[in-house]
Design goal:
It is built from 13 helices and ten strands. It has 381 residues and is of the alpha/beta class.
Length: 381
């Protein structure tokens, strides 16, 4: 009777791993290798085959700014824990000096401020997002190359034994943690390799495989130059994130627009409506929010500034009502975004064939608000 149970368990593990892969592919664009590594580590954890005396998995994510390294960790937490913020994030730029490690592990007894220093890597912080369905912790060391060597030495013990001793001698268990380290090591070399294929032209298909190998080699060489062999040997996988081309950036923009639509439909004010962007608007946002150097890092900011803020203005001034549809296009005269709205759709059973006249264009309202803001800044200056 044991065989059917084993089949059922294998099926459940496969289904959970497949769901995670599907979720990550819906949230992460252009980084298939990283997704495969993460899914395999999760599958090994589900099967109970990972080393119980080490973290569940340890990854080093390398690549240019804006390629999705941090977003990968957030997407994993969002899929498994239900919250993209369920990540213990360590900004390594804040730990460039050895004495700052006390913020992570607390000060030893007898030192000034011992009781006032609450260690960031405590067991409570690691376990705070655990639930019945997910008892994993997600720890991110962002821009690891900026940290003091004291932090690297601290990590050696965590990666090797899955344990950390705090300043007050409490022991923190990392055996249920996935540890991620991100870095921009080798990004200059990678950008130089991608230069002919960056921007809005895309990479040359016939050089794709060779280019991928060169990029991966540049990242691996940079990591070996910066980290000691014993540090690299404790990492399960070093994954080089590929710089994003135009098609990837366009797909990321569609994801960001989808997130904005979800926020509108879940608005606390109850003004739930849909919007639609033309291809010209998408090209406009891509020009505003992306470039070869920073990838997609500024894309969300461009969407917030050019799209979300004007929509928020329309909501707060009651210029758009629940159920209406806002059409966003680029003005052929000024090159700025043009907002118009369609009336509330008629309910089923109303007189078919009768159409309400289109509502007036909302661009004058937005343009007037922008002029007023500029005048206020000039007066303040």
């Amino acid at each position: 009777m044991a065989a059917p149970a084993m089949v059922l368990d294998a099926g459940r593990i496969g289904a959970q791993a497949a769901r995670l892969e599907r979720d990550l592919r819906q949230r992460i664009v252009g980084q298939d290798e990283a997704i495969e590594h993460v899914v395999r580590a999760y599958q090994t954890h589900l099967a109970g085959l990972n080393n119980p005396d080490r973290p569940v998995a340890t990854f080093l994510f390398l690549g240019p700014t804006g390629s999705g390294k941090t977003r990968m960790v957030e997407a994993l937490a969002e899929s498994l824990a239900g919250d993209a913020r369920a990540v213990v994030k360590i900004d390594c730029a804040e730990y460039q000096h050895g004495h700052e490690i006390a913020k992570l592990i607390g000060s030893p007894p007898g030192y000034l401020g011992h009781r006032e220093t609450h260690p960031l890597l405590s067991q409570d912080n690691l376990d705070q997002h655990h639930s019945e369905h997910c008892r994993l912790s997600f720890v991110l060391f962002d821009e690891i190359e900026k940290a003091s060597p004291a932090l690297w030495n601290l990590l050696l013990g965590i990666l090797d034994k899955g344990r950390l001793t705090l300043g007050d001698n409490r022991v923190v268990d990392f055996s249920r943690a996935l540890i991620f380290m991100t870095g921009n090591l080798g990004s200059a070399e990678m950008s130089a390799l991608m230069a002919p294929g960056m921007g809005f032209t895309g990479s040359t298909p016939q050089n794709g495989a060779g280019l991928e190998r060169k990029i991966a080699r540049a990242g691996a060489d940079a990591a070996r130059r910066n980290f000691t062999p014993e540090f690299m040997n404790r990492i399960d996988a070093a994954v080089v994130f590929r710089p994003l081309d135009h098609d990837h950036l366009r797909a990321i923009l569609d994801l960001e627009l989808g997130y904005v639509q979800q926020r509108l439909l879940a608005s606390a004010r109850g003004v739930r409506f849909r919007f639609e962007c033309s291809d010209g608007v998408k090209d406009f946002l891509l020009r505003e929010g992306t470039d070869a150097r920073y990838g997609a890092r500024h894309l969300k900011r461009a969407v917030e500034r050019r799209l979300v803020q004007p929509l928020a203005g329309l909501i707060t001034t009651d210029q758009v009502q629940a159920g209406e549809k806002v059409i966003i296009d680029v003005s052929p005269d000024t090159g700025s975004l043009l907002f118009t709205k369609q009336p509330v759709e008629e309910e089923a059973g109303d007189s078919a064939g009768e159409r309400q006249p289109d509502a007036p264009t909302l661009a004058p309202l937005i343009a007037a608000a922008a002029r007023e803001a500029r005048a206020a800044r000039r007066r303040a200056g």
